[in-house]
Design brief:
Layout: E1 2-3, H1 8-26, E2 32-37, H2 41-54, E3 60-65, H3 67-75, E4 82-84, H4 88-96, E5 106-111, E6 113-118, E7 138-141, H5 147-158, E8 169-172, H6 175-183, E9 189-193, H7 194-199, E10 204-209, E11 216-222, H8 230-238, H9 242-250
Parallel strand pairs: 1-8, 2-3, 2-4, 7-8, 7-9
Antiparallel strand pairs: 4-11, 5-11, 6-9, 6-10
Helix pairs in contact: 1-3, 2-9
């Protein structure tokens, strides 16, 4: 298996330093530092602009990456106010370690795992076709750190393919890297979210919607407590406002339907 993670520890320490530097060099009284899953990049950039326009003097600083790596940055002391992950399990760990205000936690959007191929590549009709000779490199997020990789592993295990496909799997540091590999033709297939495939529609095609045992949901919460970080909790509430929901929908995210 090809692994793109030898420098992960150094990159993690660098990322923590960069988040801290961002906070120190640009802090105003109402700055909000948000660490969010890479797949939320475009949507959260738009939401942050709207929030800033409605809250004069407030600046929203955004930090994107694999959910597990973002949580590790927080655990190592990165000055983050809001955390949004691409799965419930990562947020559950943040809650269990007392990192978040659990009263602020809410699911803000859903997504769908898809199998993509380069635009000119023949579309597989089933996951089983990935075992064929037409697929020698399959991009997938590292399941130890990337929620999309965990969802993909679930699906491949259920299809009895996880073990047999190991020699073909190219593990990536986040879901956007998996998208890039397929878009550049460096992998014949990859597992990403439907929203990722949409932003690269000229370069990739969706072959399959991949069923997952666990629904793909994005929880968000304030780091710390709302009493000491009211702006952070206000931003989390804003993520479920009609304006934010419209932005998320525009980028292909699915609404969360309350039971």
């Amino acid at each position: 298996m090809i692994c793109v993670s030898h420098q992960r520890v150094r990159l993690l320490h660098l990322a923590v330093w960069l988040v801290a530097a961002l906070r120190l060099t640009s802090a105003h009284a109402a700055d909000i530092v948000v660490s969010a899953a890479a797949s939320l990049t475009q949507a959260f950039t738009g939401i942050a602009h709207v929030y800033e326009a409605q809250h004069a003097g407030t600046r929203v600083s955004l930090n994107f990456g694999a959910s597990d790596m973002l949580l590790k940055q927080i655990e190592q002391g990165a000055p983050v106010d809001v955390f949004a992950s691409a799965d419930e399990a990562t947020m559950d760990r943040a809650a269990a370690s007392g990192r978040i205000d659990s009263t602020s936690r809410r699911d803000i959007a859903g997504n769908v795992l898809v199998l993509i191929v380069p635009k000119a590549h023949a579309l597989p009709m089933t996951l089983a076709e990935l075992a064929g000779p037409g697929f020698t490199h399959i991009a997938v997020g590292n399941p130890d750190t990337v929620p999309a990789g965990r969802y993909a592993r679930q699906a491949l295990v259920a299809a009895n393919l996880w073990d047999s496909l190991q020699p073909k799997l190219v593990q990536t540091q986040n879901v956007r890297q998996a998208l890039d590999y397929v878009a550049r033709g460096e992998a014949e297939a990859g597992f990403v979210y439907a929203t990722d495939a949409a932003i690269a529609a000229k370069a990739v095609a969706i072959a399959l919607r991949v069923p997952t045992a666990t629904p793909v949901r994005y929880p968000a919460a304030a780091i710390g407590d709302c009493a000491s970080k009211p702006a952070a909790c206000d931003f989390v509430r804003f993520l479920t406002s009609p304006q934010s929901r419209a932005t998320l929908a525009r980028y292909g995210f699915e609404p969360i339907i309350a039971p």
